[in-house]
Amino acid sequence: GESVGLHLPTLSVQEGDNSIINCAYSNSASDYFIWYKQESGKGPQFIIDIRSNMDKRQGQRVTVLLNKTVKHLSLQIAATQPGDSAVYFCAEQTGANNLFFGTGTRLTVIP
Amino acid sequence: DTGVSQDPRHKITKRGQNVTFRCDPISEHNRLYWYRQTLGQGPEFLTYFQNEAQLEKSRLLSDRFSAERPKGSFSTLEIQRTEQGDSAMYLCASGRIGGGYGYTFGSGTRLTVV
Questions:
Q1: Do A96 and B101 touch (CB under 8 A)?
Q2: A11, A39, A89, A94: which is deepest, by most CB within 10 A?
Q3: Which tens digit of pLDDT belongs to each residue from A46-87?
Q4: Pairwise CB contact (< 8 Å): B40 & A103
């Protein structure tokens, strides 16, 4: 089955700095990728998505980069704020099938 | 509120008891998913429905687990003869065919089996 993993389980950044969270995926047939943010006691919250025919997509303060050659996905958060502290998951999907999640990276923003 | 709602938020049960969780998806969403999440892990797929039809079940879904979506709206997930290993957060998500692949998650039901 698919395997989605993250390079770092924890990440600490100073408030105002940029954060980069990385993710590796193994299924080259995956055509859709999503980053979710999960705060304690809550369900995953959609942040940004990208389709496999793109290599970059920008949202408000967030950018997702996709490198299909090395099957790598990253989430960049600009000017990280304390409210960004959470666990971040990447997830991959093939067609309209189920999402497969990685283990997650815990982001801690230091005031 | 137009989000996905789950009930109850927390459930503590004794080993061997049966429990049932409910999920109310976003009303116009015809797909409904159940996931299980243990501490420090990402959500793991359990099963999903398209309207009232259960289209796929994970091998994680043992015979003690059953899910229904009788009218294509809300769904229930029942666990019979609970075991301590069933302790987890049970997440429901909904999505719409043709509306993009991503889903919206509820806040989950945290089950503790003692």
A1: yes
A2: A89
A3: 999 999 999 999 999 999 999 999 999 999 999 999 999 999
A4: yes
